[in-house]
Specification:
Layout lengths: L1 H23 L1 H38 L3 H50 L8 H11 L2 H30 L3 H10 L1 H36 L1 H9 L3 H55 L3 H42 L25 E9 L6 E10 L4 E6 L5 H8 L7 E6 L2 E2 L5 H7 E4 L10 H6 L9 H11 L2 H4 L22 H14 L4 E5 L7 H14 L4 E5 L11 E6 L2 E6 L1 H7 L2 H19 L1
Parallel strand pairs: 3-8, 3-9, 6-7, 7-8
Antiparallel strand pairs: 1-2, 1-4, 4-5, 9-10
The structure holds adenosine-5'-triphosphate.
């Protein structure tokens, strides 16, 4: 039953993958089929030519006549060789073309899928293993897979023609040749299985190897590696993984060589017996030297061809299994979490009556299923400025990721005006929200592009970009740069200018200001800003919030005093909510946090 299931899995996926290849490069696939068919008949023709050439040459040597016939066979053999070599070159070029075309399409599809699927997938390490399996070396594998069935047909034709030739001389030889072609089939199939299992084990190890090497070589980590003297420690970790990889690989090689030799020794014995048998038969039936050379060549060719067929079958099994990861990855539905209703909202509601209403929101990450948000409820009225405060790990960032629709597998409801977030297409939501995350991205592009991608359709709106930079306070340092907004920033490419932490943060804030968002979210926006920049940011936020909702996570409670609503989070719950004055009057957790920060400042001021 399991075998039937497996064969069905292989054939269904083989069909889908071949269809994919055919769709990408039909012309090159057709050329490949023609080449394979031609190559199928070459060994048979070579065999007949060899026999005649050897016979006519030995005739020339023995009787010194018929030289022209020998030369004719020689010429024919050379011509065939020339054609075979030209076809091989054509095959190489055709393969390179196919590899580029398939590589391009596969990489494009994998990258587009990875950039569009839900954030949930990125929370688990196993997803990265799948992603790696789906993206590395797949174009080469696809070509191998496409070649597999063709090689089987090609080699089977070759084998049948050659066995036909052998049968003319001796049945026993033909039967022995066929029998000896069976073991390599099973051996190669077994080796293929072993190689596939090895790859599954090696992928997480090689990701670790690459990770430790990146830590040792990367610019981001260069400072800490030196200050904490991590070189020895990290090299040790890298060595450990490298040795692990080597041990797995060498163990596989040992098993493969052992299996191979299990076949090679009896094969040589049978071949010797077989050729001895031919000599004996020749003494009875008067074979010519050409017959002997042709038969021994046929024997070796059939052996090679049988091994190639078994390798092709094993390769198909192996590649289909490995490529099924690619198919599974490409089949992940981007839409699956975008709308959870048959009648999705078409327009983003203008948040001007009820604003955002959150009811009994609970959420757990897929990784550990622990509730990180527990029955959270609140309402943000139109145009309000909201501050979310609380302990580390209380769930503040998780809450905003749910509010933005980055995670949709929550319980409870998030209403944008009267529309449930789950009824809105993700793209529609993302067009109307803007965010600066704690770990915002630094793009090694020009400053203009770094800001402009906040609203990709207005990437060339220089005025708008400048206005956004002025609001965030970034304009001041940008205009001092040699190429101003055209300055390339970052440290990946030569000639670019690197920015300070605070400057990067201002660029990221400009990006969100540039977006047409109705809801703006800032996760610790002032973490790298100097006190003046922080103050001007809050003033800008106040101006911006006219008609818009802004949500800000902050650990500096002094920045929250003017907020219209403060949500205080602890352990996944909103434990207090209200304005600064209301919460101070309650004298609860917020007021104790605020007073403790305040006393820190006061003590320092008094000490001075
Ligand atoms: N991707 C994730 N997978 C699993 N657990 C996560 C993930 N992200 C966060 N958590 C866990 O969820 C809890 C809430 O994290 P969150 O980042 O929301 O806290 P926070 O209040 O923003 O903290 P901080 O003030 O330190 O930034 C933490 O216990 C954290 O370990």
């Amino acid at each position: 039953m399991q075998k039937i299931h497996r064969i069905r899995f292989i054939s269904v996926n083989l069909y889908r993958l071949m269809k994919l290849c055919w769709g990408i490069c039909p012309r090159e696939t057709t050329i490949l089929v023609v080449i394979r068919l031609f190559q199928a008949f070459v060994p048979g023709i070579q065999l007949v030519l060899t026999k005649h050439l050897v016979d006519s040459v030995s005739d020339v040597f023995a009787h010194q006549h018929n030289v022209s016939q020998a030369l004719l066979y020689l010429g024919m053999q050379s011509l065939l060789l020339l054609i075979v070599q030209s076809v091989q070159l054509l095959e190489q070029y055709n393969n390179s073309k196919m590899q580029f075309k398939i590589g391009f399409t596969v990489d494009e599809q994998v990258a587009a899928k990875a950039a569009n699927i839900s954030l949930r997938y990125f929370d688990t390490g196993s997803f990265y293993d799948t992603l790696q399996r789906a993206s590395s070396g797949q174009s080469q594998r696809m070509i191998e897979l496409l070649n597999g069935p063709m090689q089987i047909v090609q080699n089977t034709i070759t084998m049948i023609t050659i066995i036909g030739v052998l049968l003319n001389f001796s049945y026993v030889t033909a039967i022995l040749v066929v029998l000896m072609s069976i073991p390599p089939f099973f051996i190669n199939h077994h080796i293929g299985n072993m190689r596939r299992n090895l790859l599954m084990v090696l992928i997480p190890i090689s990701r670790r190897i690459a990770y430790f090497l990146n830590l040792l070589r990367g610019r981001e980590t260069a400072k800490e590696v030196r200050v904490f003297q991590l070189q020895h420690f990290l090299l040790g970790k890298w060595k450990e993984q490298f040795n692990k990889q080597m041990a797995f690989q060498l163990s596989f090689e040992r098993k493969r060589i052992w299996l191979q030799s299990l076949y090679d020794i009896p094969n040589v014995v049978v071949m010797t017996v077989n050729l001895g048998l031919l000599i004996w038969l020749g003494s009875k039936n008067g074979f010519s030297i050409g017959d002997y050379v042709a038969i021994s060549q046929a024997y070796l060719t059939v052996q090679g061809v049988a091994a190639a067929v078994s390798l092709s079958v094993a390769g198909i099994f192996e590649n289909v299994k490995l490529l099924s990861d690619l198919l599974a990855f490409l089949n992940i539905k981007v839409e699956e979490e975008t709308t959870q209703t048959d009648t999705p909202a078409i327009h983003f509601p203008s948040l001007n009556q009820h604003g955002i209403v959150v009811k009994d929101l609970s959420f757990a990450y897929d990784t550990d299923k622990k509730l990180r948000l527990k029955n959270v409820s609140f309402q943000i009225k139109p145009g309000q400025r909201v501050a979310i405060v609380g302990d580390n790990g209380a769930g503040k960032s998780t809450l905003i990721k749910c509010l933005l629709g980055l995670y949709r597998n929550y319980d409870g409801h998030i209403f944008y005006e009267n529309t449930d977030l789950k009824h809105m297409n993700a793209k529609l939501v993302f067009q109307h929200v803007g965010a600066v995350f704690q770990d915002y991205s630094k793009y090694d592009f020009s400053i203009k592009e770094n800001i402009g991608i906040g609203d990709i359709e207005r990437l060339t709106d220089d005025e708008g970009i400048r206005a956004a930079a002025e609001k965030s306070g970034a304009h001041e340092f940008i205009q001092k740069l040699e190429h101003q907004y055209e300055t390339e920033v970052g440290n990946t490419f030569g000639g670019a200018v690197d920015l300070s932490g605070g400057q990067w943060q201002r660029v990221a804030i400009s990006r969100s200001f540039f977006s047409k968002a109705d809801l703006l979210v800032f996760d610790e926006p002032a973490a790298s800003l100097d006190p003046f920049a922080e103050l001007s940011l809050y003033q800008s936020l106040a101006k911006l919030s006219e008609g818009k909702i802004t949500i800000m996570i902050s650990h500096r409670l002094s920045s929250c005093v003017d907020a219209d609503l403060i949500l205080v989070m602890r352990n996944g719950e909103v434990v207090e909510q209200g304005t600064h004055d209301e919460l101070m009057d309650v004298g609860g957790y917020y007021s104790s946090m605020f007073l403790s920060q305040l006393s820190g400042y006061q003590k320092k001021a008094v000490a001075k």
